[in-house]
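Journal club prep, notes for RB
We'll compare a predicted complex against what the paper describes. Inputs for the flavin-adenine dinucleotide case:
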Amino acid sequence: MSYTVRKFDALIVGAGGAGLRAAIQLSEAGFKTAVLTKVFPTRSHTVAAQGGVAASLGNSEEDNWHWHMYDTVKGGDWLSDQDSVEFMCRKANEAVIELEHYGMPFDRIENGRIYQRPFGGHMSNFGEKPVRRSCAAADRTGHAMLHALYQRNIKVNTQFFVEWQALDLLRDAEGEVLGVTAMDMETSEVVAFHAKATIFATGGAGRVYYSSTNAFINTGDGLGMAARAGIPLEDMEFWQFHPTGIAGAGVLITEGVRGEGGILRNADGERFMERYAPNAKDLASRDVVSRSMLTEINEGRGAGPYKDYVYLDLTHLDPQMIMKRLPSVHEIGVQFAGVDCLKEYLPVVPTCHYQMGGIPTNRFGQVVIPQGNNLEVPVPGFYAAGECACASVHGANRLGTNSLLDLLVFGKSAGEMAVEYIRDTVKTHKPLPQDAIDRSLARLDRLNNQKDGSNVHETRLVMQRTLQKHAGVFRFNNLLKEGVGLIHEVAETVAHTEIRDKSKVFNTARLEALELDNLIEVAKATMVSAEARKESRGAHMRDDAEDCPEHPNGRDDANWLKHTLWFRDENRLQYKPVQMKPLTVDSVELKTRSY
Amino acid sequence: MDEERGARIGRLKWHCRRALLELDLIFERFWERHGDDLDTQGEAALTRLLELEDHDLWALMSGKEVTDDPQLMGMIERLREV
Ligand SMILES: Cc1cc2nc3c(=O)[nH]c(=O)nc-3n(C[C@H](O)[C@H](O)[C@H](O)COP(=O)(O)OP(=O)(O)OC[C@H]3O[C@@H](n4cnc5c(N)ncnc54)[C@H](O)[C@@H]3O)c2cc1C
């Protein structure tokens, strides 16, 4: 198979918030910068973010980055690296104001300052009471953000390659990163993009679960490419679940529904939350609600043919109120569950929402891996930011609105570091590694020529169902153990996927098969890392990690206050300590997490 | 399917990959049902819809907004069919 080579100073894979923010830095510095993206930049998944972006501007009431930092570490159940968290929270105001200068139409208060609203987990005075910290542009924050960043990139001459799919990371024998191979969807032409610095900003991998709030595009391509090139994946056992996604479809039903009086029921119609949380009932915190739902399902009281969901009941509520205050919930029910929620129950299930783990980086966006005794050695020429990266600010559980902030802060950092590297360290292009290119082409050849292979759609479904059952929101020892074996069986099937359609123009079957190659790496990393972590922490909740005085909430700091690193090649795990020391202030001391 | 139509349909299908899951699901259902009987007029209507921003498209799909453009109305109806 033939390919051509194109040279750039810098290459960015991904044009969501993180990729676009990074690109500005490089183009402004005058470097020839290419951005590759599967979809038009302003259709990246960042568009889905509505809640806002966190920054302690203090426009409506007192706030400061110390409080924001405390909330982030606590939200992350102390698995966050506190140097990165301090860095992010201190940079937040600047990041938001910069965005405003790029033309982001934030909502405003009378005095012209940015309007801020409260959001779960963001508090004043070290956890005392909710604070207004989220900056939003109506209910289109992510969308407005992408537009502002894209326009800025056009101004500074970033070169976009839209509808290109990056295939593999090109890493040479010394471990340096020199670009990627990528395919033009329009022609199936393969190009080796040769760059002095490469930044991954490919977003999350939420489609690895059967039930996911993520759009189809979130297939973890950056994680798959990194893993195949020998880069470990960090903390992949930590996935945030939202309690109420429509069963099967995944579409998110806002928490506001239970706020308005919606009730969760099991297959027998019982209001089961009364048993688990006698006071708060259906309004208990996200993890308590999710865990209760899962217990009902696991004990056989789930509804539906597979007994794998519960019901959300709105039928007792005033129809006019629903149509007025929750109109999209009614439409979502009709469209995605075939249910009129005024008359019937909605089928819901805890649904995968956000990936806390990813490609390991430091606070500068440099990808860091263990080498000998040094556990964080930067990989020359390689950077990552956004949901595909693990900086690690979100630790074991992300606070809402902190991820848009993460994109801005670490996107910029990664861009700045790449600028420095190109300017001061690698003045010329190092030769491309032919073996890495050949491996990538061989992967394509294998797919194009596979006979009697497995079906992509079916295989993906098996993978998704395996993860949902064996590494879902609430985890059981026996299911985890069994899941590890099962996911490796699925991986065998993925290695033999076959596509019937061999056409060259927008061959979506081929695109999806290539995406599955990436998803399966994420699935293995998740399954293996989750099975190994014998405690509960943040989003990783184990049935057998007992809540006792030595281990409140099942968290075991003596043994598990550490980051997981999963290596694809030997399917091996290694651990590295959590950075408990911030940059300039005292550590946020370990405490039991309660709200 | 001739090659040219195959290419057009492939492109349209890829443009149905959106930032919002709601839209992905609606388009997935549409292709399952109408993949084979989409005529050139349908293609034209779909092409126009796919040029919209995701939130505007969802507003049309969820009935929050309506259009009086006859070409789009028919396609929206088919997309919303449950
Ligand atoms: C429903 C929903 C609501 C949310 N609301 C909020 C919120 O209110 N506040 C908040 O802070 N967070 C929110 N989040 C999380 C947040 O939206 C994401 O974490 C964030 O947008 C990810 O941005 P990103 O730049 O890392 O990636 P994305 O925006 O996902 O962009 C990834 C980019 O990579 C490209 N790409 C991927 N693979 C390849 C490849 N192989 N080749 C070429 N290009 C590729 C894609 O085309 C895309 O341009 C929400 C998430 C969901 C699902």
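Talking point for the session: The interface with chain B takes residues 38-39, 42-48, 139-140, 142-143, 163, 185-186, 212-217, 249-252, 327-328, 331-332, 334-336, 338, 503, 505-508, 511 of chain A (CB under 8 Å).
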